[in-house]
Amino acid sequence: MWRRTYLLLLLIRVYFAWSPSYLHPDENFQGPEVFAGKIFGYPSHLPWEFTTDLPIRSVFPLWPTYEVPMSLLKWFYTEVGQGNPPPQLVYYALRAGMFLLSFVLEDWAIYELVPSPRHRRATVVLVASSYVTWTYQTHTFSNSLETILVAWGLVLIRRIVENKHSSFFSYAVLSFIAVVGVFNRITFPAFLLFPGLQLLPCFQRKPSSLAVFVGFGLLFTSIAVFIDTSFYRPSASFFDIVRNPIITPLNNILYNSDSTNLAIHGLHPHHQHFVANLFQLLGPAYIAMILSLFSWPIVPSWMRNTRALSAVSATVLLSIFPHQEPRFLIPCVPLLLSCVRMHRSRIFLATWVIFNAAMGFLMGVYHQGGVVPAQLAMRSIVESNTAAQGIHTHPDATVFWWKTYSPPHWLLGPEQGNHTGQIETLDLMGIPGLDMIHQLDSAVPSCPFSSPVYLVAPTSATFLDTYTSLSDHHEPNLQLYRLWSYRKHLNLDDLDFGEDGILDTLKRVIGRRGLGVWSVRRRCK
Predict the structure, then answer these.
(1) What PANTHER family does the annotation carry (predicted)?
(2) What is the reported pTM?
């Protein structure tokens, strides 16, 4: 039974890994976007984390995760004489890589972390049935990589503690995981700080193991700093790197220690993680854990292990910082689910299935689900529209994106010879509608013209209705002609219950769900 259930859940994970939902801009702009321009020559836009004078993101953990598979694809296509691979192949290859990391390393680590053979299979199935495993863990997030590193860090700590004669190799591997984890995300130490205290007796009993751990830590740190400094200063010599290194975790800590910097990204109450974020990730499992706390002074069974200590202590430490997003707690999900022993309850199973099915389709299919397909199809859309207007030249095009997540520039792929001109991507984010129209009006040429301006926006935006249909009472200067649409797209940032009411808002956002691409033209007499 457990084996068949796990295989079914594995197929579900594959389905969501291939669904082009878009959970957060960081999954593109802090990973594939960084290397796509360098390796393939695709259009790319580096975010501020990589362009500031004091860079706060390290490329050391990104190199094996993204640059190596991209370089292998580049090598293969070069060998067969086909130039660069298409961006959709690169996109889904990276998704497949994240799926394999989740399927092999995460599930394996969880299996090892549960000491009871009787509970191992049920625990792996429970973790595999979480929508977080289906969605976040199959996307190119630094948080997804952090989850795997945290799990294997705990596995190695447990092996070392239980085996008093652990080899120096175990300490070296743990040191490597610690360095990669810190350079990947500065939140990583919060998950291993208290579980790592179990190593103190081992270091006291065998001081040489501490020397190995620290020595290899310094070695891997030096390599990480060298790679980062070489990336940000390509012309720097070895001695320049030694004299003036770029230490990205230190820059990250200094940046996030300033509350004014965090205010730019949004401030949250300190209880946000415990009250809202864990519930969003765990649903009924979190409610059951909270209810078990009322058995005090008896300590609930799920709190009596290192996995719970890691998750709870990390949540407490991360709650100190006022900027709190649910994805920061993704490593807590498999750790806390591995502590749950409620899989025999029919009520729990029913609510668990309903919760994860709903959240899975919401986050794994519909959440900003049209952004990636639209960007992948953009060159074809522009080329088809140009041909339909009878234009024989291929002018440069400007594409405005409104009320969507920032589109990944690298998905445009290479310029296709003389078929299309350059495509400029401008992200208007969520500016007011009139300001958006002003931007379009200033970009559309005067009459007569060939329309090189396009708008990508959710079809749920009723503000566009005036410009997409003729009205006897109002004839706007600009007209929008829909060229392409994608139905599986929900824009949750467009919820406006205060102005439209709950029912009307849901009817608009869900009933008119989708993402459209319009050609923007001036009304010429």
Answers:
(1) GLYCOSYLTRANSFERASE, GPI MANNOSYLTRANSFERASE 4
(2) 0.93
